Amino acid sequence: MVKKLKVLYAAGPGNVIGTFHHWCEGEDDPSRLAITFSGQFYDVCTDCEAEGYLISTNADKRHWQQGQFTFENRPVPLTQQAGVLYYLGQIYYELGIVLSALKFKADLVIGANTDCFFIAALLPRLGIQVVPSLHCVLWPKYKPLSKAQKLLWRLNRRFFAKDCLAILSTS
Q: I want to staple 5 with a disulfide (CB 3.0 to 4.6 A). Which of 27, 50, 97, 150 is the partner?
């Protein structure tokens, strides 16, 4: 028996469940201006007969399953905080993604919703490939990085140099 591919997609703040309902009807999500990444994810998983687990940062905390897909809206904690507390929330969220990938027995994790990519570097060491999905630039071109951002990018350097399988980028 061939093992089914299992892919976890750490999506952004969109309503992946609402988009799924539109996708099931064969239509694009009318609440979005462009074709959604999650809709494309559903297409790829269906074509590859893969199991998909989508975790969004949507504030409407929910867990739902239908067919080959599992959905979870999991808001990032402490996003309204500043400084160290904000980054602790980001690290906590990314550790939750790592634990979910292990529990789901994912073969591949796509996406990362924080600046703490160094946490995703744990996944390849646990036998799970990672493809970060970048929806903007890594750092602002005309604004100097803060000390915290410089530290984060020193921590993230190895992930981008050695740990990620590829990079999905949209700008």
A: 50
